Amino acid sequence: MNKDTATYLKGKRKQILEKWMDNQVKDAALRDDLMSVAELQQQSEEFLTALLNAFGTPEAENTDSAGYETLIDILNEISISRARQGFSPRETNMYILSLKQVLGQQLEQNPALDPSKLSREILSINNIMDSLGMTTMETYIKGREEVILRQSNEMSEISTPVIRVWDGILALPIIGTLDSARTQVVMEALLEEIVATSSRIAILDISGVPTVDSLVAQHLIKTVSAARLMGAECIISGIRAEIAQTIVHLGIDLTNIYTKASLASALKMAFSMLNIQVTRGAKQNLGF
Amino acid sequence: MERIPILKMGPFLLVTIQVDLYDRLALTLENDLINMVSKTEAKGVLIDISAVSIVDSFMGRILGNIASMSKIMDAATVVVGMQPAVAITLVELGLTLSGVHTALDVEQGMELLRTKIGNLDTDEEGLYDSFI
Amino acid sequence: MIVLSKEKLPIQREQDVVLFRNRIKELATKIGMSLVNQTKLITAASELVRNMLRYGGGGITYLEVVSKSSIPGVRLTFADEGPGIADVTLAMKDGYSTGKSLGLGLPGAKRLVNEFDIKSEPGKGTTVIIIRWKNGL
């Protein structure tokens, strides 16, 4: 890119910014629900200043050069934050594309450029802007992947929350169907937590388990046996009437396992196993 | 030959297994431990396996043997610190170590042994009372 | 199924077992197997290698890293030239033992792995092949 072009564009910074903002605001894809115009203005101003500075460097046409470092940093930040905020790829890329248009139009108004020079300069700017657009998309996708990864991690953690209800007592509310894969995850999470907290009692609450067949029962029995080998005792709670019926009809033997109808009665049992007494104290004024 | 050290702590014997056992080492341990119980008239045996990453059916049998033999000599056995992965594997293998007491760590294991001894004392007192 | 690596380890004495276990652990760790699955695999191997030493008078083991539809796994082969097993079906039953063990060796090992194959010919020897996949249940 010609040095004079860079200087010329730098001089027209104000006009470019105005038109660019105009374009962005007019565009139907503007997400004023996700970002205020004032915020956009500030972001665009910062970006444009960095871009015009980069145009003035000796290696203006190489977006990997040192002159573009600040600019790429800003751009990455913008794309990642847009990916997280839920902008679509098109909306994100429009940011660069709309500026490209404005820069082209501005150059056409430069009296110092004859047609052949003009087309060369516009081509050069197009190349730079396309390369920046590519970077935007790459970062945008990276940002989205991070979001997906975080969500899937959260989901697998959410599916097995091991709760410490008392010193030495853990509770594991199991929600949804228990298959072999899930049992393994649940079992490992519970046993790890038993070790980590030195808890002697674990309450497995199956109120949220829709059906208990012989396979699910077997999984539960295995979990209880493994915990016993480690020196902890399990209480299975949340056994509904229909589940008690199926268990007996299927001939599943749970006689060696402590079972309780509700989590509350399981907790009571855990207290008595640990010789903990909970008493109602004298009435206190708690302010309600 | 390699040996696993056995510590005497009051009325208890304490064994910490720090290496992965092969069969002969486990058999030697069983021998040494039972001889120690007999010699010291220990009331309890605590075996810490928190550093053991593999317990197969042979090793499981040795633990069961130690517990049964000690019991005949009036000593309780507690196995402490079994790793979750080891416990899951043993259950899958079909081994439940019935007859062996378990605890999460040495501290809880010691507590368990003390209550076992306490029960024994009161039982014996009760026995004498009924004699008188 | 693709074989990614293969090595041979003869088992003649009890001390060889420790090396054998460590080698399995290295391979399983390399393919990113979880600790629980590693423990199951090594425990199964420990049962089988004991059988080989006790009944087969030692033998040869092969340790392989295999891959099926891009899921890696560890395959172990235990081959001895001992007396063999007369009734394999009976030997696979829980609690059956000709020695003085608990009789959990073969059936227990089978429960701990994803694939289990046993071939035995009286007078010629026994070969057991097991596979545990990286994320197999």
UniProtKB/TrEMBL annotation, chain A:
Question: What residue stretches are annotated with the STAS domain?
Answer: 159-270
Q: Does the keyword Glycoprotein apply?
A: no
Species: Rufibacter immobilis
Query: What protein does this entry describe?
Result: STAS domain-containing protein
Domain of life where this protein originates: Bacteria
- Extract the InterPro entries matched here: Bact_StressResp_Reg, RsbRD_N_dom, STAS_dom, STAS_dom_sf
Q: Name one Pfam family in it.
A: RsbRD_N
Q: Does the keyword DNA-binding apply?
A: no
Q: Which keywords describe this protein according to UniProt?
A: Phosphoprotein
CDD domains attached here? Answer: STAS_RsbR_RsbS_like
From TrEMBL, chain B:
Please give the SUPFAM superfamilies that the UniProt record associates with this protein: SpoIIaa-like
Record-linked InterPro entries: Bact_StressResp_Reg (IPR051932), STAS_dom (IPR002645), STAS_dom_sf (IPR036513)
What name does the UniProt record give this protein? STAS domain-containing protein
Query: Which source organism does the UniProt entry give?
Result: Rufibacter immobilis
Entry's Gene3D superfamilies?
A: STAS domain
What Pfam families does the annotation carry?
STAS
Q: Which residues form the STAS domain?
A: 2-113
UniProtKB/TrEMBL annotation, chain C:
Organism, by scientific name, is: Rufibacter immobilis
User: Where is the secretion signal located?
Assistant: none
Upper taxonomic classification of the species?
Bacteria, Pseudomonadati, Bacteroidota, Cytophagia, Cytophagales
- Histidine kinase/HSP90-like ATPase domain residues are 36-137
Q: What is this protein called?
A: Anti-sigma regulatory factor
**SUPFAM superfamilies hit by this protein:** ATPase domain of HSP90 chaperone/DNA topoisomerase II/histidine kinase
Please give the superkingdom of this protein's source: Bacteria
The record's InterPro entries line, in alphabetical order, gives: HATPase_C_sf (IPR036890), HATPase_dom (IPR003594)
Report any Pfam family annotated for this entry.
Answer: HATPase_c
